[in-house]
Amino acid sequence: MPIPRLIDTTRLEAALQAFADARDWNRFHTPKNLALALTGEVGELVEIFQWLGEDESRRVMDNPATAQAVRDEVADVLMYLVRLSSVLGIDLDAAVADKLAANARKYPAPPSPPSVSPPAVG
Amino acid sequence: MPIPRLIDTTRLEAALQAFADARDWNRFHTPKNLALALTGEVGELVEIFQWLGEDESRRVMDNPATAQAVRDEVADVLMYLVRLSSVLGIDLDAAVADKLAANARKYPAPPSPPSVSPPAVG
Amino acid sequence: MPIPRLIDTTRLEAALQAFADARDWNRFHTPKNLALALTGEVGELVEIFQWLGEDESRRVMDNPATAQAVRDEVADVLMYLVRLSSVLGIDLDAAVADKLAANARKYPAPPSPPSVSPPAVG
Amino acid sequence: MPIPRLIDTTRLEAALQAFADARDWNRFHTPKNLALALTGEVGELVEIFQWLGEDESRRVMDNPATAQAVRDEVADVLMYLVRLSSVLGIDLDAAVADKLAANARKYPAPPSPPSVSPPAVG
Predict the structure, then answer these.
(1) A52 touches chain C (CB under 8 A)
(2) Which of A19, B37, C43, C112 gives the lowest tally of CB atoms within 10 Å of its CB?
(3) Residue C70 CB neighbours (<10 A)
(4) Is residue C41 packed enough to be buried (19+ CB in 10 Å), middle (13-18) or exposed (0-12)?
(5) Which of A39, A42, A76 best probes binding to D when mutated, by most D CB atoms within 10 angstroms?
(6) How many angstroms separate the CA atoms of C45 and C72, rounded?
């Protein structure tokens, strides 16, 4: 039985490949260029939060203008990340499963707290 | 009939939520903190390429050491991006579908080239 | 009478040039590579703050370990920025003077508040 | 005799302080906010290079439009870096001198090549 995927980017990878093919843009999609583009989009994303306090930034999705900006920039970052992985032949699902497992070993969860209900007496 | 998802992050979001819950780390996962963490990981990713030429960077996955580094950092960037989206309640699939459509309108693909077979003469 | 410089990076530029010359590293210092390196260092700088609250981050220089980390990363970011400017032949002082002036026009300071002492009556 | 400064940011720090004072913006200039703003500007800077080849990016200052964009973004990055250092009380000149010295120890320059003229015989 196959292990369920943590993430499935198959269709997005295909859509991005088709987008680049249709415009003859593959030649621009070198790993270094995609790394720079990813950085540019991360800059646009974090900028939305730069003058907001912690409370205001939690409410950024309540304001239609900032909500749309966040959605757009998150999408842009994701697309460049998926495109870079695709160009390099990286299996994102496997990469993320491995890293999550490594993180769990590096930062083990503390043991479960005792149950709330006290033990029976007698 | 439902439109197929471009991307499915359901299980990854759940895994990241469980990871944070088990360690009582949700309190650290504010939007601004996640934006800073995302930036840190993007830095670690692009650093791998900083002294490589274009050709060398295309071959980065041929060297086991750099290949693993790239996989790890791509995974880290993805996890913080998905976690940020999750904390803000963003539907990543909808966001990416919208942005891809907007990009297609902003950068229309040129018309298809004429067919290879030349027109009939006479 | 010459306008005083806002910033003088002359000696730092010379030191960075000599450092690269002595190691035959100029060939790595292309604008794109320096842009990637700058990004990597910014990532290392912002990471220091990623799990700190606003108050804790104001006190980051009180802890010798984090203080040294911040100094090191700020220095790294500065060195790559100055190196990039140097390689591109940018006069940083002129660039900053121009941008500060443009910002002052874009965001004019409000007029001075009225003096504290109330106007004389009668 | 004082050691000459590698970098002098005194007037720029004062100008940025005055700019913030005049607009009552100091309250926005927390370390985390400035880290996010710095990231945003680095994004705008590296974006200029993202679709350029190595040769094109070396010539970016030959085109008046891209030259001005690079100058503006380099200035923005510098201003946020200097402002962050200022807010944290960091002596940028000392920080850079220390890091340059540490780098020289970590990456010692190879010994000088033999002098061109051969040693005297006998």
Answers:
(1) no
(2) C112
(3) 23
(4) buried
(5) A39
(6) 8
Q: Which residues of C touch B39 (CB under 8 A)?
A: 42-43, 46-47
Are the beta carbons of D61 and C92 separated by less than 8 Å? Answer: no
Here the tokens at position C32 are 């794109």
SS3 C119: coil
Please, what's the b/e burial string for B53-72 (b: 16 or more CB within 10 A of its CB; e: otherwise)?
beeebeebbeeeebbebbbb
| Angle CA B66–A84–D46, to nearest 5 | 95
Contact residues, C window 91-120, toward D, CB-based 8 Å cutoff:
92, 94-96, 98-100, 102-104, 107, 109-110
D11 to C5: CB separation less than 8 angstroms, yes or no: yes
CA distance C81 to C58: 25
ipTM: 0.91
Best mutation site among D46, D76, D98, D105 for testing chain C: the one with the most C CBs within 10 Å? D46
- Block mean pLDDT (10 aa), chain C, length 122: 85 98 97 98 98 96 97 98 98 98 96 66 52
Helices then strands, counting H and E runs in chain C, come out as: 5, 0
* pTM > 0.95: no
- The DSSP-derived string for B41-63 is HHHHHHHTTTT--HHHHHTGGGS
Q: Tokens 């005297």 appear where?
A: D120
Report H helices in A24-118. 31-47, 54-58, 64-88, 92-106
